[in-house]
Each structure stands twice: as C-alpha cells, then as structure tokens.
Amino acid sequence: MNDGCTARDLVWRSGKLALYRYRPIARPAGSAPVLIVYALVNRPHMMDLQPDRSLIRGLLSSGLDVYLIDWGYPDGADRFTTLADYIEGRIDGCVQWILSAHAAKQLTLLGVCQGGVLSLCYSALHPEHVRNLITMVTPVDFRTPADLLSKWVDGIDIDAFVADGNVSGDALNALFVSLMPFRLAQQKYVHLLASLTGTATPAAQEALRDFMRVEEWIFDSPDQAGAAFGEFVRWFYQENRLLQNRLEIAGRRVDLRDLRMPILNLIGKRDHLVPPAASAALKNLVGSDDYTAIEFDLGHIGMYISARAQREVPAAIAGWLASR
Amino acid sequence: MDTNPWQPWSAFTAAAPSAPPQDLIDRFNRLARTYVDAVTTSTPGTPPGDAAQVFGDALRDLFAPMQPPLTGTRAMDAASDRPDFLSAPPAFGAGREHQLRAQRQAAAWQRLEEAQRRLQRLWLDALRDAGEAFVARLKDHPPPAEGAAAMRALYDTWIDCAEDAYSRIAHGAPFCKAFADSVNAASHWRRELQVIARHAAALPDLPTRAELNSLHQQLRSTEERLRLVEAELRAAKAKPRRRKSP
Predict the structure, then answer these.
(1) Rounded to a whole number, what is the distance in angstroms from the first to the last CA of chain A?
(2) Dihedral sign, Cα of residue B27, residue B28, residue B29, residue B30
(3) Rg (CA), chain B
(4) A292 near A320, Cβ under 8 Å?
(5) Which mean pLDDT values do the consecutive 10-residue runs of chain A (324 residues) have?
(6) Cβ–Cβ under 8 Å, residues A265 and A279
(7) Half-sphere exposure of residue B38, counting CA atoms within 13 Å on the CB side?
(8) Is the dihedral of CA B150, B155, B156, B161 positive or negative?
(9) Nearest-5° angle of CA A230, CA A231, CA A236?
(10) Is A102 helix (H, G, I), strand (E, B) or coil?
(11) What Cα–Cα distance (Å) separates residue A189 from each residue in A202, A276, B21, B170, B242?
(12) What separation in angstroms does the CA of B144 have from each of B32, B48, B153?
C-alpha cells in the first residue's frame, strides 16, 4: 500500500484520523504552517505519490511546514458520522493541535476537492484560526451546466440510498468511471498497452509503475460514512446550499462572506469532475478583498500529479504565500 | 515499412493477455483490418462509404454490451435467479407475511430491471450516435492505410466519437431520470432484501443491523453528552474564582 514517499511523522491521532507532519527539506520560509485537508472519497497520498509527482514535496522545497490529514477508512461504526463531526470535530481537532504545537493563533488551510469544501466551511465558521485559505479543484457552485454528477444525483432519493449504512467506495468508483466510460474503462488501458510495445526498457517499466501507482490510488477508495455522505449530496449537490448561503453545520450558518482572509483558488481548466465554473463561483461569494484565482490547463488528477502541475502548482502556492 | 502493418499492433496487445480490454481490442483489430483492406483495395476514386458504414455498425454492436458500470452488478444478477414470487397465489395463513415480503422483494427487483432496461436503451442510443459520427468522420477523412499508428488513430477516433455521443446523452434529462430511477430502484430492492435478512437473522437469534444501529446511536449520544460535560468543566475551571467576602 502506497502511503506517500516523503518522510513524515504521525503527530496526532483521533479515532481513525491521523495527522502527519512532513519533515523539512529546505530552509523554513517562515510562513504559517500549512494544513492540507484532502477529500473523503479518495486517499490523501495522491498529494505525495512519488518523488517526482508530489505536491507536498514541492511545498516542502519552498520551505513550508506541511501537515496532512489522513481520514482513515470508515467502517460500519462510522455510519452516523456527520459533516459536523468532520468539520467541527476532526478538522478543528487538527487545527487546535497544530496551533498549540506552534504556539500560534493561525495557520494556512489548503483544501483539495471535497476537502476544499470542508475547508471553506471550517474557515467560515472559524475565521480567527485561518490566516490564508487555499482551495484546489474545489466545487462551490454544484449546479453548473457542465456538472454531470449534479445532474445525475438530482433525482436520487439519498436517504433511501444511504439507508443508515455506509456508501461503498466501489460504487463511487463505478460512478466516476461512468462519467467517461470509453476513456476511463477502455482507452486508457489500450494506450497503456500501446506504450508497452516491445518493452523492457527502464523508461517503459518506470512508465508502467507510474501508471500502476495512479491506478492503485484511483481504486483504493474508502467507503463513505453514510450520514456525512448523505448530507454532502443533499446539501451541496441537490440543494446547492453553499452557493445560496443556506448551509448550516452543527447549528451554525456557514456564510462565505465571513471569509475575509486572503484566498487562493486553484482551478483545473480541463477538470471533468469539478468544472472550472463550479470553482470560479467562489470569487463573488467571499468577503475577502484579497482573492486570487489561478487556472491551470489541467484536468482533475493532472492538478496533482502531472509534470506540469509539479512545475507550476507548488510554485504558485509558495509564491502567493510568500507575499502574505 | 512493416511487412505486415498489423503486426506491431497485434504484438503489443498479445503481450498483456490479462489486460481488461484484450478481447475487445482483438475484435476491434479484426474489424479495423477488414475496413482498411476494403479501403485499400477499392477502385481509386470510389468513396469508401460502405466499408465505413459496416465498420461503424460493427463497432456499435461490439460496444453494446459494455454499458456503464453502474447498470448492473453481480449481486443483482445472482439475485435474479430466485423463484418468481410475483405470480404466486394470494397469501394466506401463517406463511402470509413471509410470502408478502418475498413478493415485495420480487416487485422491487422487477422495478430495478425495468429501470436498467431504460438505461440500456439510452446507452444504445449513444452508440448509434457514435456510429453515425464515426462513419461521417471516416468518409471525410479516410485514415492512412498502413501501420499500427493508423490502427491506433482509428481506435482513438472511435473513442472520441463514442465519448462525445455518450456525453450528450448522459447530460440529457431522459438519461438523468433513468439513472436516478435505477439508483432508487436499487435502494428499494436492497431495503426489501434487508427486511428478509432481518427475519432470517431472528430465527437463530443473531444480532440485526437495526440493533447495531440503535447501539451506535446510543453511543454517539453518550459521547456527545460527555463532550458537553467536559466543555462545561473546562469553562468552569477557566473562570476566575470569586474570593469569599470576609
């Protein structure tokens, strides 16, 4: 099992959650510590897949102090875990631990995909703890025309679907493959075979290992805590509450206008899971005067692991943080 | 130049016999080879339209069974082997509740099958559109006739056409409704299955999901109360104590 490639220490554990701190590899930049909040639907080691494809390594190279939340694999005992548990319990627990360890009042949150949504909620509820907010391939408007997922889930009876149980990671994988079945279930394997023609060269073998690392990550999908999954689908996809300023977490309104800290929004122009317009909608909802959006000509996964992403994304984050 | 232009393409597909699309690639190879042979042996100046049409139609048939992964699971396939309770006589007496449960499950299965069939029809519509787009592209731009690169280009052209056609259908209201109906029908069927499993578990006095859920909820409630009490204690400790007045 790949858990990432960069040296790190487990610094805090709460239930299945593990908080990791990465060991520095460059002179400290002096910025606030960075907490990466990854999505619940996939494993977070995509942020540190291999030495030449690691967002985390890129951030460390810029002297940032990086933490990562690993949510673990929910099981039947987690079926009633809610979004409030994740946001007010687990993310807040990590934030408090880091702030205490650094004797600091604020940190930088870097939310990725669904983790970006959780980070937006947390930052709106606890702006006093968040010095800078970075969102990466993060949906905010869940009803944009290109969003196939939202169209598909619109008519689903989510209570019946969850039915007091967890949601299988296999089912989610099937759903994601169904978004582009010819490319994702056929063409990519054919291209892999084509690339292996006559091959025993080290480069071809390395390419195959690269492919298999991504393949392993894609299909290593944790089951989803049923209650949180149901809330996420209903509140965000079906009711678009975040956009409409109608979202409440643990009885408190999540008002994006409370986001007055500097915000960096990283968008994939070819993202088929989170269409660019779904992310770009953040601009007009936040209360911050310091909002920056950067679009990369990349797809959803390309934003983490493509060669171009390695060159551009960590540098963009570090450069943006350096001036704040 | 390769003496056999198909050899490199076939060679790499043969190199990985366990790869998921192996059989499909082999069949694609045969169809493509027939098409390109027809193009290369046709009279100069004659449009290769018929060959393209035959190729496009064959690809539609080839991909028809693929269907999106969500439409059908092994568990459901296995469940379809059970007896037909829907046509059973009316339920009476001591077995009445058992029969009704089985009938409800059978009805849920029937609903699921119907929803899956609607999805399947839309999938075939996407393949029809893909086939038409593919044939049009071949007529406009017949591929170079030789080499593995030409085969790959043909394959990629087909995938582009198929994905475009599928995307148009998948974004449409009929597909979205059929998809939701299918998921809802599957949820309904699973619920009926759970009811039967619960009754079966009661006989040997096995714990049921409902009992476990109840315990989970009680535990959560207890933890929540504990957190509140701890928070109150912390707040009380943090408050400065009033000195007793002399």
Answers:
(1) 37
(2) positive
(3) 30
(4) yes
(5) 87 96 94 97 93 94 97 94 96 97 97 98 98 98 96 96 92 92 90 74 84 91 96 98 96 97 97 95 97 96 91 95 91
(6) yes
(7) 17
(8) positive
(9) 115
(10) helix
(11) 20, 27, 7, 23, 73
(12) 12, 13, 9
A68: which DSSP letter?
E
Measured between alpha carbons, how far is residue A100 from residues A3, A12, A92, A105, B101 in Å? Answer: 26, 12, 12, 8, 57
Task: Check if A5 is active-site.
Answer: no
Give the residue among A269, A279, A276, A280 at the shortest CA–CA distance from A302. A269
Taking an 8 Å cut-off on Cβ atoms, the answer to whether A196 and B16 are in contact is yes
Contact state of B191 with A151 under an 8 Å Cβ cutoff: no
**Amino acid at residue number B45:** G
- Which residue in the list A5, A94, A113, A121 is annotated as catalytic? A113
Q: Interior CA angle at B175 toward B188 and B167, to 5°? A: 135
Q: What is the distance between the alpha carbons of residues A262 and A273, in angstroms, rounded to a whole number?
A: 26
Residue type, B237: K
Q: Chain B residues with CB inside 8 Å of A144's CB?
A: none
At residue A202, the pLDDT reads 82
A163: left (phi over 0), alpha (psi -120 to 50) or beta: left
Chain A residues touching residue B192 (CB < 8 angstroms): none
Which residues, 6 or more positions from A323, have their beta carbon under 8 angstroms from its beta carbon? none
Q: How confident is the model at residue B22 (pLDDT cuts 50, 70, 90)?
A: low
Rounded to a whole number, what is the distance in Å from the CA of A186 to chain B's nearest CA?
A: 6
The sign of the dihedral angle between the CA atoms of A5, A272, A285, A83 is: negative
User: d(Cα B80, Cα B75) in Å, to the nearest integer?
Assistant: 9
Q: Could you give the ipTM of this predicted complex? A: 0.90
CB burial class (10 A; 0-12, 13-18, 19+) of residue A24? middle
3-state helix, strand, coil in chain A (%, to 5): 45, 20, 35
Smallest CA–CA distance, residue B49 to chain A, in Å, is 25
The rounded distance, in Å, linking the Cα atoms of A316 and A308 is: 12
Residue A268, helix vs strand vs coil:
strand
Which two structure tokens, joined as six digits, stand for B110?
């029937």
Rounded Cα–Cα distance for residues B14 and B17 (Å): 6
> B187, A154: Cβ pair inside 8 Å?
no
Question: How far does the CA of residue B213 sit from the closest CA of chain A (Å)?
Answer: 8
Alpha helix (H) ranges present in chain B? 7-14, 22-41, 49-63, 74-79, 96-140, 148-171, 173-202, 209-238
Query: Which positions in chain B touch A197 (Cβ < 8 Å)?
Result: 8, 11-12, 15, 148
- The SS3 assignment for A167 reads strand
